[in-house]
Fold:
Amino acid sequence: GANTPLLLAAAAGHHLVLYQLLAAGADPAAANAHGYTPLLLAVADAHEPAVRMLLARAAASAALALWAAAT
Structure:
């Protein structure tokens, strides 16, 4: 796919925009045509606040999936 607003915000390190997009339901795992995810782009450009936010989101999603599987 094309670069989504979430991918662009991650690549630019706009962590406040990332927060708003994630809160609105943007998919943090969605990749572009090159296979790059928002987390990969944030890491590649050393945008630490964006990386931390995306990692926290991934951890929360994983914990929720584990909890759902256990019930």
Observations:
- The chain has a mean pLDDT of 90.
